[in-house]
TrEMBL record:
This is Transcriptional regulator. Coiled coil: none annotated. It comes from the Bacteria. It comes from Qipengyuania flava. Pfam families: FMN_bind_2.
Amino acid sequence: MHPNPLFHSDDRAMIEAMIVQVGVGTVFGQTRTGPCAARTPLIVHGAGRLQYHLAKSNPLVDGLDGGSALVTVDGPDGYISPRWYATRDTVPTWNYVSVEAVGTVRKLDDDELEAFLHRLIDTHENRLGGDRWDASEASTGTWDRLFGGIAGFELQVEAYRPTIKLSQDKPAEVRRHIAAGLEASGQHDLAAAMIEAGA
């Protein structure tokens, strides 16, 4: 988390909406051989609960249930050039949106894992539009084999630590120039985030 309080937010609804929109994060935990991280799809399941799954062979799996974990979710990010400021007598920086979620982990039972997978599939198939795929199209053998290879977890979030670093420490005119520069360079998501934040 960035130390500047200008880049923080207590807006839990906005934080969880960002997690839903991004849909994937990184789980960090301690294993017998040291710290480990794994990328995984995420579902917000009620207020302050994040569900995800990992391959059973992942070293994190054995130590998560009942333990603490950190989940990070990254939104848009990008290089900010001094060319977009009124004066070039400065240095580049990096703007980004990121959330850390810290909490206690509980292993999902098979019914909860099954429900999580169907929610995950529905969420992402609906985003694609068109002729969606349904889990019933997988044969029982295929589904059972793959289901048997994963473990599901739920993080009960004790704290969200967001960083929304979108040049809030700069005057409004500079923020507008940065957003225009990002848009012109093809970084549409970061430009949109800056505009939404008041650029």
